[in-house]
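so ive been stuck on this for like two days lol. basically i have the seq below and the ligand is flavin-adenine dinucleotide, smiles is in there too. i just want the complex predicted, nothing fancy, no docking runs or whatever. if the output looks off dont worry ill sanity check it later, just need somthing to start from for the group meeting slides
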Amino acid sequence: MSAKKVDVLVIGGGIIGTCVAHELRASGREVLMIDRGEPGLGCSYGNAGWITPCFAMPLPQPGMFFKSIGWLLDPASPLYIKPSADPMLARWLWHFTMAMNRKQFLNSIRVLTDLSKYSLDFYQSAASRLKDLGFEKKGLLLVSSTKDGIKYAQTEMNVMAAQGIAGRFMEKDELLAFEPALKPLVRGGVYFPQEAHAEPYRMVLGLAEEFVRSGGTLLSKAEVFDFETSKGEITEVVTTQGRFKPDLVVMATGSWSPEIGRRLGLNLPVLGGKGYSMNVLADEKKPQRPIMIVERKIAVTPRAGSVRIAGTLELVNQDFSITPRRVRAIQDGAREFLHLERTNDATDLWRGLRPCTPDGVPLIGFSGHLKNLFLCTGHQMLGLQSAPGSARLAADLILKRAPLTDPRPFRVSRF
Ligand SMILES: Cc1cc2nc3c(=O)[nH]c(=O)nc-3n(C[C@H](O)[C@H](O)[C@H](O)COP(=O)(O)OP(=O)(O)OC[C@H]3O[C@@H](n4cnc5c(N)ncnc54)[C@H](O)[C@@H]3O)c2cc1C
């Protein structure tokens, strides 16, 4: 059977691929989006649902070097790097360490904030057209019980103020009155009022359906397992549902990107950063708004009828196993800080692999060595909150429009 001709083929139906397909279709391209499973069942499924430009920060931060050595040795820390002899890990760690400088940190925040602000507006507008996205704009609260944690929250407030994102410091008494779900061990916190949250899986489905309604094509259960290339371009994409002949291929395959990239001769430094989430039944002391417990790095998100608690970042690559002590650390940490007494009865335990680049900035750009291959991957902890902005930047570069933000920090050739 001959290969089917397509204009744009987007590989991957997570929030990133879906937003890219949606944006390119809205810009008039004929788009086929394919996924090895169903859209939204990868890392985009059970995340904390935060759309919080105040968190537009890369993973590597100045002064993190000695902390990261500690994490390497402490399997109970909220950020764990699993030791491995894989040369890809050594290369990743080298770039990670090199990115821990203030200049690069601030430069990354600037462009990540641009993507996140655009995304927040996009989702707000999507919520006015699409049903049941769970979109709410109730702000985000960072809370801590330690001096160091409060200092961290205040530093974040100051850094983000320079990006036009206002936060407000609250002392203990004000904080407890503002959010009665908190227990008295909190000593202070910072409230960012403009932030939002949503149901991440429903967001993918809602946008994927809108993409199809606008004339886009979605093909599920189509796994890409090979490519044909000739004269510096991809001529055919080979999937479990047949072969395609695209003019342009967009790779939005999240933590699977290194695996699929290898088939095209790419050595992509994207590591899987495993995190967990679970849902807890909540009574009248349910939190009113998303909360970050700073020293435990636990994200708490109110939902209809339950509360989602999420956390940990284990750099483990394609390892989907469940580590019980990390699940317990999230349950214990949430119970310690909040009137959520039934965290041990949590349901819907889920784990996902965040696609992490070493400098914490996604790869958005043409691959360089294959002229019709465009990458949009590596969105670490910020995939939901930066997907529409990333898709807009991707479309700007593909369609040669003025870019939403400076595209240089995203270029694929930097590693
Ligand atoms: C615990 C946790 C909490 C988080 N909380 C937040 C949050 O509050 N806010 C936020 O912004 N981000 C959050 N994140 C991060 C966010 O979930 C990710 O950044 C985002 O989901 C990445 O999206 P993606 O589309 O790149 O990847 P994915 O959603 O994983 O999508 C990739 C898709 O590619 C498909 N695919 C892979 N290989 C192939 C192939 N060969 N052929 C066809 N299809 C293929 C997969 O099936 C998958 O559907 C969190 C992550 C975790 C783990």
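The domain at 59-99+135-195+271-354 is CATH 3.30.9.10 (D-Amino Acid Oxidase; Chain A, domain 2). The chain is about 30% helix and 25% strand.
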